[in-house]
Design brief:
With 317 residues, the chain is mainly α. It has helices at residues 2-14, 34-59, 65-70, 78-89, 95-127, 133-145, 152-161, 169-175, 179-191, 195-203, 208-219, 221-236, 240-245, 254-263, 281-311.
Length: 317
Amino acid sequence: MTAVRARGMSSAEKSGGSGHRQPTRRPARPPVTPLGVLRLLVLFGFAVFCAVPLIWLVLAPTKSDSQLASGPLSFGSFHRAVLAWHHLADYNGGVMYRWMLNSAYYSISSVALSVAAAVPAAYALATMTFRGRKLILSLTLIAMVLPATAVVLPLFLEVNAVHLTNTAGSVILPAAFFPFGVYLAYVYFSTSLPKELLEAARIDGCGELRVFFSIAVPLAKPVLALLIFFSFVANWTNYFLPYVMLSNDKAYNLPVGLGALISGTPALKPASGGSFLPITYPEAALAGLIVVVPIAIMFLFFQRFLVRGLLSGSVKS
């Protein structure tokens, strides 16, 4: 009993002379300053500026034209949204569904080709030494900053020379050229890929293809997700290139098709006098929402990879 009591007393002494735990102190809150309040107000203003158009886009299809004018940020009814969808879907025998399938086909094919070309090219530029390497990197940077509209005319002449205009290849093949993806993957491979691991694999007898597919690609999953997301968004929202390359409305992708549908309607051009299927403001908003929803779904699916991919290469291994 004496020994137990002595041990109890010693433990109580270590805890400050009592058997109770000392309460942990919470970190002190930073003082409220005028500069901090101003910063919060500015951030809140930017948040409202970005959020209001998205909220309007979601709520607009649920109302009629008169309801939209009276209460732009109020909810109408699901019945109005269903009517707006049927009105859009019935245009020209349901060509809207064809545009959706075309957009999915163009985007997925372009993403597959661009990632399949960008990742091996970036790996070779980051881990190998060969003649012309610096020149290729410089040309990649130039291609990144070059406006896409500046090369549309040469691309059109090139595609027309091989008789691919007005086909899926005229949209997919130019979009598969993704210099931003090459440079982004190059930054990752040159800074975050452990060179010792690659050398150890080569010493063990692995060839470059085995090293690439067994070591480099699995370690680059965050960057691959980032490339897939950026490439998909760029191709899904691609308007100018398909607009130039395609003349058959059956081959349009969704942005070009909806642009052609809305441009001749009194919703956005009252002076046009109407068209075969007049599109109202709520239906025009629904058309824009159709383009945005797949991108939002892709972001929710890839968001856990996006942060890791954006931070890849920020710390050198």
